[in-house]
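So, can you check what follows?
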Amino acid sequence: MTDVTFYFTGWEPLVRILVVGVSMYVTLVLFLRLSGSRTLSSMNAFDFIVTVAIGSVFGRALTAKGVALAEAVVALGLLITLQYTVTWIQVRWPFFGRIITNPPALLYFRGEFVDREMRRQRVARDEIRSAVRKKDFGSLEEVEAVVLESSGEFSVVGSVENGSAFGEKLEEEIGEPVTYD
């Protein structure tokens, strides 16, 4: 059975946390600066996983005596390198990007909820209404479209002039030809 200490076990563990914490912080900032702004952008599922894993490595390095600073730095480097590599591949080969991230989904268009897509994305009408209110619209009548983005955020579009922001699949998603005013 291990000894349980509640308040203080000496200065050595505290000094270790300070040294490792400062070192990990500086390393993480350097790695994030080298990897670019995309590493900290709004997250899709892959970005979220990497972010949680980075936090886990950082926390474990601070509190686990058995994790050497060099091991934690290599783990951080690996995660950030993987994230950078995957996003680099996504930019160059769109097919790969469609495997990693969900495409945006049209949930509401010109007065109509797109029920099939809402069911597929597991979004309730009240969530769409909430997104509309958060964007300072007073009613759904003021909104032309609501899109669930790859990051999980709602985009609320007040007017659609030519629809180019929706991409090529707009007509397929709503099931009818679309005319733009």
